[in-house]
Amino acid sequence: MNTDKPTTDVLNVINETLLWLDDIVIGQQFCPFAKPVREHNTLHIAVQQQTDMSSLLRQVITECEQLLEKDNIETSLLIYTEQLHDYFDYLDFLDMANEAIATAGLEGTLQLASFHPNYQFADAPSDCPSNFTNRSPYPMIHIIQEQSITEALESFANAENIPQRNIEHAKKLGIDFFLPYLQNHSSAKE
Fold this sequence. Notes:
Elements: H1 10-26, H2 34-39, E1 43-48, H3 53-69, E2 75-80, H4 87-103, E3 110-115, E4 140-145, H5 146-154, H6 162-173, H7 175-182
Parallel strand pairs: 1-2
Antiparallel strand pairs: 2-4, 3-4
Helix pairs in contact: 3-4
């Protein structure tokens, strides 16, 4: 018996995510590869409202299979509204999702990128602006085709400098720049 009761307005979640994507990820060029995906409408967004972890893991694999089967989808975002608000629970789930991808034989074909309202790089203090390059309005997993990454890196000069550029740019912007994109979500305040 499924006792999950979705309580989140899915359209609002998608709109908040797209605003963050357009203004932060694309607008600030934290991911120079995101703009063409958005412009060509090849991004699939799935809002996950289940609370059962096994259902969430099954959905990761389902989304991976769909990504590989459909030519009109370049990349996917799985957004979690009812679960994974605790950052450490989210990291545990991310490990399980990576393991599920490996078990499904998709390692080397797909990879996961992580975004969370409380994202923190291991070597950065929690209030460091660099963390905001991976902070999002909701916990989410970005599923990326490795072939797409390879092609994008080949067409981008000095791709190895992107992480350092992002850190420096986030520090220049400061925390206050990012907060309006995160403050409406409760786990960003935890």
